[in-house]
Amino acid sequence: MGNIEVLDLSHNSITSLNQKSRERISSSISPKLSVILDGNPLSCAVCEDYEFIQWLLLDSTHVYNRKKLTCRNGHLENEQITNMTIKKLKDICDAPLKQRQLIITLSVLLPASILLAFVVLYKRVKLRKKKRRLEEATRRLEEATRKLQSGDGSYKYAVLLFFCDEDNKIAIDDIKKNLENALGRRITTERETS
Fold first, then answer.
1. Whether 109 and 166 share a structural domain
2. pTM (2 decimals)?
3. In 24-51, which positions are buried (b, 16+ CB within 10 angstroms) versus exposed (e)?
4. Fewest 10 Å CB contacts: which of 26, 47, 66, 117?
5. What gap in Å lies between CA 3 and CA 175, rounded to an integer?
6. Residue 185: predicted pLDDT
7. What is the pLDDT of residue 64?
8. Full domain range(s) for residue 43
């Protein structure tokens, strides 16, 4: 079979050549072998056609009328086989990978976004409740302070201090003075002695 110079495969129902056939044509039959594929419904519609179309466009492959060959794309239209055909087939081959990457990315980002939204919402609600409690406590404290300063209310004294003789100086000089300044009125101190 080493003397074959032209392999005429024209006008058959060949959609592509498998890898084994391509290898035999490229290497083992004859280095000067030309292949004629005119009139075949060559396919460029699925990923499996990528290597065949790429092989057709290699300079080392001697294909008769290479520039006039056409293939049938995914829309069942004939198109001329060019480097653009290779690019389209590569995109077809990469589509499942891109789709998987998109699914993985979305399956990570979507739950993370939802979790982040819940955390932010939880923190805001918690902060709002804390702010309301603080406002309520401040309001009560201001109201109690106002009542104590004016003498209204059910409390006679704001603070009841018990202390012993050793703490007398601290209680009178420091604590009482600070309380008087804070409450804005004189504080009565009553001491029981035993």
1. no
2. 0.53
3. ebbeebbeebbbebeebebbbbeeebbb
4. 117
5. 117
6. 58
7. 85
8. 6-81
**Residue 3, C-beta contacts closer than 8 angstroms, at least 6 positions apart:** 30
Same domain, residue pair 18 and 76: yes
Q: Are residues 136 and 166 in the same domain?
A: no
Q: What's the CA gap between 31 and 50, in Å, rounded?
A: 24
* Beta strand pairing call for 78-80 and 70-72: antiparallel
Structure tokens given for 134: 């603080």
Whether 11 and 60 map to the same domain: the answer is yes
Domain contains 125: yes
What is the pLDDT at residue 65?
A: 84
| Per-residue model confidence (pLDDT) at position 113 | 96
User: How high is the mean pLDDT in each 10-residue block of the chain (194 residues)?
Assistant: 78 90 75 84 92 86 85 88 92 91 94 96 96 93 78 68 79 79 62 55
Domain tally, the chain? 3
Among all chains, which residue has been given the structure tokens 């004016």? Answer: 150
